[in-house]
Amino acid sequence: MTRISRPIAVFDLDNTLAGTAHRQHFLEARPRDWKGFFAAAPQDPPLAQGVAMCLEAAEECEIVYLTGRPERCRKDTVAWLAAQGLPEGRIHMRSNSDFRPARHTKLEILRRLGRDREIRMLVDDDELVCDAAAQAGFRVVRARWAAASEALKDAQEREGRT
Fold it and tell me: Does 8-159 carry CATH code 3.40.50.1000?
C-alpha cells in the first residue's frame, strides 16, 4: 500500500516566529554574549504574522522547524513552541559545534528533506538563506515582519551562530 505524505512547510524561528529584539543587545556587545542571547530565547514574544502563517500551513502541511539555534537550546525551543500553541513538528537545529553560515546549513537540510517529500514553502527572515533556497528551486516566503538586526545578520553569516 502506497502512503501519500503531506507536503512540508518549513519555518525558521528567530525573527520569523519568535521576536528577538529584546535580546539583540547580547550580540551588540564585544565579544558577543552567545550564552546570554540564547538563554533569553524562552522570553521571546511570538510574532503574530509568522504564527498565523504556521497555523494556516498546518492545515495542509506537516510543519518542520529549521533553525540556526544550537542543539543545546532544544529543550527551551520545544517548550516555547508548545507555549505558543504551535504545531508539533520535527526541529532541525545546528550541532553545538557547527558554525557554518545559515545559508549553507539550512539549504543542506532543505535538500535532504526535499529528496522524498514536497516542500510547499520555506518561511525565513534571513535574506541570504531565502536567496539560496529560491536559487535551488524552493518556494520561499520572506519573513519581513520583524525589525531587521544588523548584529543578527552578521552573526548568521559570519559566525554561523543562529
Answer: yes
